[in-house]
From TrEMBL:
Organism: Senna tora
Any single Pfam family the record assigns to this protein: TPT
Name of the featured protein: Putative sugar phosphate/phosphate translocator
Predominant location category: membrane
Annotated Gene Ontology cellular component terms: membrane
Keywords: Membrane, Transmembrane, Transmembrane helix
InterPro entries according to UniProt: Sugar_P_trans_dom (IPR004853), TPT_transporter (IPR050186)
Topology in the lipid bilayer: Multi-pass membrane protein
Length: 336
């Protein structure tokens, strides 16, 4: 809740006071039907995921997060944004089997904590699919700052409700030693995390984030066993997570193939359209900065694919102009 409030406040100053970026055209209908549901599921994923830390170890939580591709695939198929493919389905089965084995080998297994974490994972998957369905259908694209500007305050409200109803009654204010610098530095880290995710995707692409995510999980599991004595890892834990990791790596490989296939189809456009597209990439930073995912407006041109929604990129949408829009923009610049 503090993270969302701080991020929303910083984004407000950047948009309204310092005018680093301009706000998008946001009507009440779009806000109510798109931003509010996305913020609700985002807040749910944060609340359920953080509550799980009270019941299960950090290492086991990272192992359960291997289920994220499974949840996203299942929700996407149910919502009609993805097709049920046999190869992807087999990967999902492999990941699920690995997580089950890892859970069976967990010494401090807790049903409540596991349910909290799995619920948070599926809430995150629902938010990702809603972002793709609702925002893209309405033609709304958000850069990193405007994403936090619209979504963070709404998520703060959704996180305030369970805190006020469930957590605040059990808090004894006299026993709380509030250290401003600890909370402030922690909020700065959360803000830096959000921006760094957007910058990495804007400069490199979704594949890099996927590989970095696997490395991050291994580092977190190793550090948690050193820092927290209760995070004991068994041999069955390692075997199960290794199986799940194989499924995740295969899933990422399939995604890389899909991206390359979309790139090859884009490269088959006639030479004239390719020239218009190259010219447009240079001029689009001036005319339509909010429609290009350039990592926070620092001058990049984003990834090569048309639209990539990544599990590790919760708030951002990468978009490109349509061929008609590109032609109109080229004619406008050339004075035709």
């Amino acid at each position: 809740m503090i993270h969302m409030g701080f991020s929303g406040l910083v984004a407000f100053f950047l948009v309204r006071v310092f005018k680093v970026v301009s706000p998008v055209k946001m009507t009440f209908e779009i806000y109510a039907t798109s931003v509010v549901p996305i913020s609700a599921f985002f807040a749910s994923s944060l609340w359920f995921g953080n509550t799980a830390y009270l019941h299960i170890s950090v290492a086991f939580i990272q192992m359960l997060k291997a289920l994220m591709p499974v949840a996203t695939f299942v929700v996407a198929v149910m919502c009609g944004t993805d097709k049920a493919r046999c190869d992807v389905f087999l990967n999902m089965v492999l990941v699920s089997v690995g997580v089950v084995i890892s859970s069976y080998g967990e010494i401090h297994f807790n049903v409540i904590g596991t349910l909290y974490q799995v619920t948070g994972i599926f809430a995150e998957a629902l938010r990702l699919v809603l972002t793709q369905v609702l925002l893209q259908k309405k033609g709304l694209t958000l850069n990193p700052i405007t994403s936090l500007y619209y979504i963070a305050p709404c998520s703060f409200v959704f996180l305030f409700v369970p805190w006020y109803l469930l957590e605040k009654p059990g808090m004894e204010v006299s026993q709380i030693q509030f250290n401003f610098w600890i909370f402030f530095s922690n909020a700065l880290c959360a803000l830096a995390l959000n921006f760094s995710i957007f910058l990495v995707i804007g400069r490199t692409g979704a594949v890099t984030i996927r590989v970095a995510g696997v490395l991050k999980d291994w580092i977190l599991i190793a550090l948690s066993t050193v820092i927290f004595p209760e995070s004991t890892i068994t041999g069955l834990n390692i075997i199960g997570y290794a199986i799940a990791l194989c499924g995740v790596v295969m899933y990422n490989y399939l995604k890389v193939k899909d991206v390359r296939a979309s790139q090859s189809s884009t490269e088959s456009i006639p030479d004239r359209n390719s020239k218009d597209w190259k010219f447009e990439k240079k001029s689009s930073d001036i005319f339509v900065p909010n429609d290009i995912d350039n990592g926070g407006g620092s001058g990049g041109n984003g990834s090569a694919s048309d639209i990539i929604v990544d599990e590790e990129a919760p708030l951002i949408q990468s978009s490109r102009l349509s061929h008609i829009g590109r032609t109109q923009l080229t004619n406008l610049v050339s004075g035709k």
